[in-house]
UniProtKB/TrEMBL annotation:
<feature type="transmembrane region" description="Helical">
    <location>
        <begin position="214"/>
        <end position="237"/>
    </location>
</feature>
<dbReference type="Pfam" id="PF05552">
    <property type="entry name" value="MS_channel_1st_1"/>
</dbReference>
<keyword id="KW-0472">Membrane</keyword>
<feature type="transmembrane region" description="Helical">
    <location>
        <begin position="173"/>
        <end position="194"/>
    </location>
</feature>
<feature type="transmembrane region" description="Helical">
    <location>
        <begin position="372"/>
        <end position="393"/>
    </location>
</feature>
<feature type="transmembrane region" description="Helical">
    <location>
        <begin position="306"/>
        <end position="330"/>
    </location>
</feature>
<feature type="transmembrane region" description="Helical">
    <location>
        <begin position="111"/>
        <end position="132"/>
    </location>
</feature>
<keyword id="KW-0812">Transmembrane</keyword>
<dbReference type="InterPro" id="IPR045275">
    <property type="entry name" value="MscS_archaea/bacteria_type"/>
</dbReference>
<feature type="transmembrane region" description="Helical">
    <location>
        <begin position="78"/>
        <end position="99"/>
    </location>
</feature>
<dbReference type="InterPro" id="IPR008910">
    <property type="entry name" value="MSC_TM_helix"/>
</dbReference>
<feature type="transmembrane region" description="Helical">
    <location>
        <begin position="267"/>
        <end position="286"/>
    </location>
</feature>
<feature type="transmembrane region" description="Helical">
    <location>
        <begin position="342"/>
        <end position="360"/>
    </location>
</feature>
<protein>
    <submittedName>
        <fullName>Mechanosensitive ion channel</fullName>
    </submittedName>
</protein>
<keyword id="KW-1133">Transmembrane helix</keyword>
<feature type="transmembrane region" description="Helical">
    <location>
        <begin position="18"/>
        <end position="39"/>
    </location>
</feature>
Length: 420
């Protein structure tokens, strides 16, 4: 009995001795709650009264004022719980729970040491964003003042005034270039902000990638300039060559090719077609050179393949062009000689089909399939013609042969003008 009494007495003594620690922990929790509540109220209500939601909406950090208020409330809650976490090690120490308090203390020490870096990175990003936006607006205003869209529209043959185009489409060249400058200004700022965090596992790969992008930017600008120069030179030379060819009398050939065509059929303008082909070839050469400037292996391989395939394309275009020209000339001649448009059309489209198959073969476009398809088409047409002419057109064939025989006999019965 005395043992039980002594145990209860010891437990009561322990509880009484531990009560100040419990009271101290409760008081610390009350202080933590009070401080956290005051900080959250100062942060949320103070910023709201200072007009932070409107500034967030204007700075595109929030869509609406309600969204801005919601974000401020969320940040206030985060601060509220962080303050509680800051007081937890002291609460656990007060309760003599140092084994639980030690990891939390280490975590909070690291967090407190990281907060200055995080705040500095945030300040750098915010200031950099406003600087980049200022530079973007400055570049957009400058490009709009010099009316760069007008010159770009002239270069690309776009119709419509720049005012109408800018009113209907915000993606004008001035805005696009301004956005590019905005990104270019942000890239080094993001790199500096990441380095400020001192997290090598995150900042080093991202910084290396951004540095590579910065190193490529001059090459990208050179490539864009090469393409624009190629477009301008190609357009100039193409138009000049078309004008020169028209002055050499090539229009006469075009008119003879279009003489037998129907009114609603598209006409052939050889000078314009040759000028456009030359224009496209010049643009392709400049584009390939621009790809090589980027110094990317994949793009270099693509450019080399394009240049290597160009001779086949040129020879294929020549074959197709000669086929179309020959088909038109021969079809028009047969139409005028026979007085039957169908005969001319048959000859014309037969030659065009042969030229198309020869072009596909020259381009190495499924050579075996193209050759087999051509043979099957020719064989099928021959068999169909033989069957239709031999079975369904015997009377027509007999009449045509009688006409041919009568014409031959008439030629034989003509006098030889005394030259016996």
């Amino acid at each position: 009995m005395n043992q039980f009494t002594g145990a209860f007495r010891d437990m009561g003594t322990t509880i009484v001795n531990f009560l100040p620690n419990v009271i101290g922990a409760i008081l610390l929790l009350l202080v933590a709650w009070l401080v956290a509540t005051i900080v959250r109220a100062i942060f949320t209500k103070g910023l709201k009264k200072a007009g932070a939601p409107n500034a967030m909406v204007k700075g595109h950090m929030a869509k609406t004022q309600e969204d801005a208020n919601s974000k401020l409330d969320s940040i206030g809650k985060i601060l509220y719980y962080l303050i509680f976490i800051l007081f937890l090690p002291s609460v656990f120490d007060q309760l003599n729970m140092r084994a639980v308090a030690a990891p939390i203390t280490n975590m909070m020490d690291k967090l407190l040491a990281f907060i200055p870096n995080l705040l500095m990175a945030a300040i750098i990003l915010i200031l950099g964003y406003f600087v980049a936006k200022f530079v973007k607006n400055l570049v957009a205003t400058l490009l709009t003042t010099i009316n760069i869209d007008k010159w770009f529209n002239k270069l690309t043959n776009k119709t419509g005034t720049p005012e109408k185009m800018s009113a209907s489409n915000k993606n004008t060249l001035a805005n696009v270039l301004a956005n590019v400058v905005f990104v270019l200004v942000l890239i080094p700022i993001i790199t500096v902000a990441l380095e400020t965090l001192n997290i090598d596992s995150i900042s080093r790969p991202v910084s290396d990638m951004l540095n590579q992008v910065l190193n490529m930017i001059p090459n990208i600008f050179v490539a864009i300039i090469l393409i624009l120069v190629g477009v301008a030179i190609g357009r100039f030379i193409g138009d000049l060559l078309a004008s020169l060819l028209k002055g050499t009398g090539l229009d006469n050939i075009s008119q003879s090719l279009n003489s037998g065509s129907r009114p609603n059929m598209p006409t052939l303008d050889l000078a314009t077609i040759i000028g456009k082909i030359v224009q496209v070839l010049i643009i392709v050469f400049f584009t390939v050179e621009a790809l090589n400037v980027l110094e990317l292996e994949v793009l270099n391989n693509i450019g080399t393949s394009i240049i290597g395939y160009l001779p086949l394309v040129l020879s294929g275009l020549i074959i197709l062009g000669l086929g179309i020209i020959g088909a038109n000339l021969l079809g028009n001649y047969i139409q005028r000689a026979s007085g039957n448009r169908m005969y001319g059309a048959i000859v014309k489209y037969a030659i065009i089909i042969i030229a198309v198959f020869m072009t596909l073969d020259q381009l190495n476009f499924a050579t075996s399939i193209v050759n087999l398809a051509f043979l099957f088409i020719i064989a099928g047409l021959a068999v169909a013609f033989a069957i239709s002419f031999g079975i369904g057109g015997r009377d027509f064939a007999k009449r045509q042969l009688d006409k041919f025989e009568a014409k031959a006999q008439a030629e034989d019965n003509k006098p030889n003008d005394g030259n016996l």
